[in-house]
Specification:
Elements: E1 2-4, E2 13-21, H1 23-27, H2 35-44, H3 49-61, E3 71-78, E4 83-90, H4 104-114, E5 128-135, H5 139-153, E6 177-181, H6 187-205
Parallel strand pairs: 1-6, 2-4, 2-5, 5-6
Antiparallel strand pairs: 3-4
Helix pairs in contact: 4-5, 5-6
Length: about 210
């Protein structure tokens, strides 16, 4: 399941954060008042902004994508009971006719590899979400392709309900992805990309 929303409308606890952007858009987020910094503070529910800012800046400095391959950097942000895993992904620097300005193939591959909920042994994290933050250049030209790429990469049937009798087991909803954009979508844009994502996942199930 993929849900496109604003950060302020998140109702579930964030299990992990996936941040996608170009090297330029990501490295511009090092300041303490930046969109990314405030998003991570909100997701981690941590008031220690100075420590989080240092960790974020170090992770941003290590990103070095190539023309054909993106680059990832990971950090853990402290919160009350545990740590919030954050994975930054800088898109490949080259744009080709088969990988447009949004680099949807790279986005889909990254999200597919990192969309699982992080759980500890004996814990149940089914009431948590994976937060995907999209910070792409040229928002007007990239928001739709990027949203569709996330939908393509979202898990479909990740959990199975255990059978307690002779009846066949049923499928539970997959790990949910909540997607937010640095540049907020309009109501019409949100409706369009949400319906498109639902259609992509339905077609994939068929």
């Amino acid at each position: 399941m993929v849900r496109f929303s604003a950060l302020s409308s998140l109702s579930k606890r964030v299990n992990r954060v996936l941040v996608v952007g170009s090297l330029e858009t990501l490295q511009a987020q090092g300041a303490s008042g930046s969109f990314l910094h405030q998003t991570l503070l909100s997701a981690s529910q941590d008031a220690n902004s100075s420590a989080s800012n240092l960790l974020l800046q170090h992770a941003l400095d290590t990103l070095s994508p190539s023309a054909d391959s993106g680059a990832t950097s990971e950090l853990l942000l402290p919160r009350a009971s545990d740590a919030l895993p954050v994975t930054l992904f800088a898109l490949p620097t080259q744009v080709s006719r088969s990988n447009t300005l949004a680099r949807p193939h790279a986005i889909a591959s990254f999200v597919k590899s990192h969309n699982k909920l992080v759980t500890k042994r004996g814990e149940n994290a089914t009431e948590e979400v994976v937060l995907v933050v999209l910070m792409l250049p040229g928002h007007t030209d990239t928001w739709f392709a990027a949203g569709a790429a996330v939908a393509r990469a979202a898990p479909l049937y990740e959990h199975k309900l255990k059978r307690s009798n002779a009846l066949p087991g049923s499928e539970a909803e997959s790990d949910p992805l909540e997607v937010v954009y640095q540049t907020p979508l309009t109501a019409d844009e949100t409706t369009l990309v949400q319906h498109t994502a639902n259609a992509i996942q339905l077609a994939t199930r068929l």
